[in-house]
Amino acid sequence: MPFGDRQEDDHYVVFFAIVEGGHGPYHYTGGPPSGSSPVREGTASFASGRTVGLLTYERPFGRIPTGTEICSADNSVCFPAYYPET
């Protein structure tokens, strides 16, 4: 079990994001919400010179945390981690 005390029957929601214009590593503002995974990232570079970040992260199924953002290392790119916020 890669994240804490997960049980086999726990349910998690996986999020994917494609981000252009920022530089990793990416992180949650204020740290990850309880039970959430760290932000994992990869980078894709194209022949044109364009580079995008491919991010994945997950949280336990249930109530969506509000006010949580994910930002690039230089904070030039930030976005809501969970959409829609309720």
Question: Helices and strands in order, then pairings?
Answer:
Blueprint: E1 12-20, E2 27-28, E3 40-45, E4 51-60, E5 69-71, E6 78-80
Antiparallel strand pairs: 1-4, 2-5, 3-4, 5-6
What does this structure look like?
By secondary structure, the chain is mainly β. It has strands at 12-20, 27-28, 40-45, 51-60, 69-71, 78-80. A 3-stranded antiparallel sheet has the order 1-4-3, with no helix packed on it. Strands 2-5-6 form a 3-stranded antiparallel sheet, with no helix packed on it. A hairpin with a 6-residue loop joins strand 5 (69-71) and strand 6. The radius of gyration is 14 Å and the shape is elongated. The N and C termini lie far apart (29 Å).
Contiguous helical run count: 0
- Terminal-residue CA separation: 29 Å
Largest sheet, if any? 3 strands, antiparallel
Find the structural class using helix and strand composition: mainly beta
What descriptive keywords fit this protein?
single chain, about 90 residues, mainly beta, 3-stranded antiparallel sheet, 6 strands, about 0% helix
Nutshell version of this structure?
This protein is mostly beta strands. It is built from no helices and six strands. The strands form two sheets. Strands 1-4-3 form a three-stranded antiparallel β-sheet, with no helix packed on it.
